[in-house]
Amino acid sequence: YNDAAWRSLDLPHDWAIEGPFSQELWGETGKLPYQGVGWYRKHFGVPASDRGRSIFLEIDGAMSFSAVWVNGRFVGGWPYGYTSYRLDLTPYLKFGDDNVIAIRLDNPDQSSRWYPGSGLYRNTWLVKTGPVRVRQWGTFVTTPRITPEEALVNVDVYLENRSGLKADVAVVSRIYALDASGVRSGPALAESAPMRIGFEPEKASEAMRANLLRLPSPRLWDLASPSLYVVETSVESEGRLLDRVETRFGVRSIAFDPDRGFLLNGRHVKLQGVCLHHDLGALGAAVNVRAMQRQLEIMLSMGVNSIRVAHNPPAPEMLELCDRMGILVMNESFDCWRRGKKWPGTMKENDPAITYYDYASVFMDWHERDLRAVVRRDRNHPSVIMWSIGNEVIEQWFTDGWKLATRLAGIVREEDRTRPTTSAFNGAQCGYSGFQTAVDLVGFNYQCKEYQPFHKANPHIPVFGSETAAMLSSRGEYFFPVTDKPADGRVDFQVSSYDVTTEWFFNLPDKEFKALDEAPYSMGEYVWTGFDYLGEPTPYNGDPSHLLNVSDPARRAQLEKELAELGRIRVPSRSSYFGIVDLAGFPKDRFYLYQARWRPEHPMAHILPHWNWPERVGLVTPVRVYSSGDEVELFLNGRSLGRKRLPAGTYRFCWDEVVYEPGELRAVAYRQGKRWAEETVRTTGPASRVLATPDRAELAADGADLSFITVTLADSRGDLVPRSKNLVHFTLSGPGDIVAVDNGDPTSHESFQAHERRAFNGLALVVVRTRRGHAGKIELRAESEGLAPATCTLHSR
Ligand code: GAL
């Protein structure tokens, strides 16, 4: 097959993020062309000297239904796009010759409730080993006893002998400390006695041996000090090294108490969590470590201590980052089981002949393999604290649904008995139907009123909010009058940022805060969601007719006209409004509501809305302040509008009767009577210049490192001009590339890969990537008509 005309590209790669957006595609999956078939091919040499070795292809995740051929012969594949798997290529290879691998991906239309990405979007590896070796994910490190003097470290090692010959081997493990950058430091801190094993020809070719080690004075893995170790396991025979694997681990204890919640190293830790989908915004689903690290840094700065990977196994790099950054993880496997959530629109939900488009279509054949793969791959990560076997599965509504839950939880327990199982239920009846005993911990989605009755009825089962709040907002948009109706007679498909809008079945964050304050036994919460994600643009999911649901006939007629002028068959929205942070990574107002609660020792105050309302002079314009202080005084142009204390069970400082006049709003926060924090918002002048500020200016010339550059439209004083939407053009010189642009507007169909972007409420984002092996100075220039341009300098080393 002549592939000379094929495009050449680097992995990981997500073909759908290249777009274009199409109004005709579903908003649920981001209006991006993820569906359909894609192929990748690669030629590679295998030296003759590799004869006798085994050569594996390892795929961290391929979206989806991947099928692999080598030299024209079918090797195997894996349907679920989020699971890591390995194929043995050895029998298909030509040693001492050129080989070609071909991988086909196939994404069924309507097979996801969010943007899944497409293609070889995670890393892919070629692994070479001898025939006597540690199997894939073949070590399991546990720390059954931890004291200040020593930790008992047990290393289960799973071996295989594929030589067909006799083999006498010894397995030894040694522990080394890792420094903060993950590099091994110093000599071995502990060494196991060798465990011997004799493989007889023609007999069992698999075996497990445990190495037991005593690690003196262990440094614990904890949130503020996530100390890590590595255990190096060697398989030796007659002084010859046959295989060696490294397994990173942490020494920490976890406990889940129905009365005290979650305990880390014996200390109570309230879960301050967010749910995250796997996409990286404008970069799509293609794995990039720096982009994931940035997401986590932003979440940490808000006070997050835990992530729920919704609703699928994450990239391994995500867990490595959480290990290193001290973030707890709820590791989730599935969004559905046998009963799917996606089926042909022509069929009824309870049609016995129903066919599903999502994971349900393969569940019966694959759930066990998927679940074992997830747990085996991830069970050495200290960050992982629980296994979720499902999100809002349909079986939760059936009287015998607990049977399947018991089977799945049983598979997990066979692979790991050191962590509990859980599931996220949106049906309160699961707390009483028997479902609650199939798993070890009960997670409720949007059921905060159930914590008390559940706890009373099930005093032995820990409970938490596996999905909470789900508020909607667009960064920097404020609508008047302040109401909780999403559309409120507008056709711009934005949602007001006064933080009062949810769909009917969700809660305001405040309601969850209050419920948690009244339920000290609860482990905490996971907010839906930390970041906006591609797809699921609730409340603008499909047909815009609900926008016309306004009582005033004149307003209705005008809206109909505006909609007709827009010429839209469906709404344009292609990414969510749920995020506390927008798709580009810019915090929305809500960020500060959570920060005030989750980082009470961090002095802060945040004012909303912005103060550029020329059309509102003399009109009531409510002001809110989020603060970690216990009192706030608000000033408008130097006049006090009153000093307020929060009434019990409320979390926002409110001034509802402020009459707008241009000028300056200043909030002064107090804590126990002392000045604590201060914040000012000013009416700005017109935009006069562009500012460009990189998150990092010193980069690695590795072809993967990124700089996220915030582009601000500012007035002559340098203040962000809140409602500005100017188009900004980007040019770059030096050894780097512009790989993505964004502005956080959920309705924009501008390409993420263009070299220009309209600002959304004063902000845009440019992402620059270095080139591998090419060091040097990179300069990004940002220009907008009529404004002074900005230049930003990066160094790739
Ligand atoms: C939940 C679901 C999430 C997301 C959210 C917002 O019920 O678990 O995946 O769909 O609603 O609509």
Secondary structure layout plus pairing:
Elements: E1 36-46, E2 54-59, E3 66-70, E4 73-78, E5 85-88, E6 97-107, E7 124-129, E8 132-146, E9 150-161, E10 167-178, E11 184-191, E12 195-199, E13 206-216, E14 228-237, E15 240-249, E16 254-257, E17 261-264, E18 267-268, E19 271-276, H1 289-302, E20 306-309, H2 316-325, E21 328-332, H3 363-378, E22 384-391, H4 401-415, E23 421-425, H5 435-438, E24 441-445, H6 451-457, E25 463-469, H7 509-517, E26 524-528, H8 553-566, H9 590-598, E27 605-608, E28 623-627, E29 631-636, E30 639-645, E31 653-655, E32 664-671, E33 674-682, E34 689-694, E35 698-699, E36 706-714, E37 727-733, E38 736-742, E39 756-758, E40 763-770, E41 776-783, E42 790-796
Parallel strand pairs: 19-20, 19-26, 20-21, 21-22, 22-23, 23-24, 24-25, 25-26, 35-42
Antiparallel strand pairs: 1-6, 2-5, 2-7, 3-4, 3-6, 8-9, 9-13, 10-11, 10-12, 10-14, 14-15, 16-17, 17-18, 27-28, 28-31, 29-30, 29-32, 32-33, 34-36, 36-40, 37-39, 37-41, 38-40, 41-42
Helix pairs in contact: 1-2, 3-4
Bound molecules: beta-D-galactopyranose.
The site of beta-D-galactopyranose has 10 residues, from loops.
Structure description:
The chain is mainly beta. 12% of the residues lie in helices and 36% in strands. The protein has an eight-stranded parallel beta barrel, surrounded by five helices. Strands 10, 11, 12, 14 and 15 form a five-stranded antiparallel sheet that branches. Strand 14 and strand 15 form a beta hairpin. Helix 1 crosses helix 2 and helix 3 (363-378) runs parallel beside helix 4 (401-415). The radius of gyration is 28 Å and the shape is globular. The mean pLDDT is 95. It binds beta-D-galactopyranose (GAL). Beta-D-galactopyranose binds next to loops.
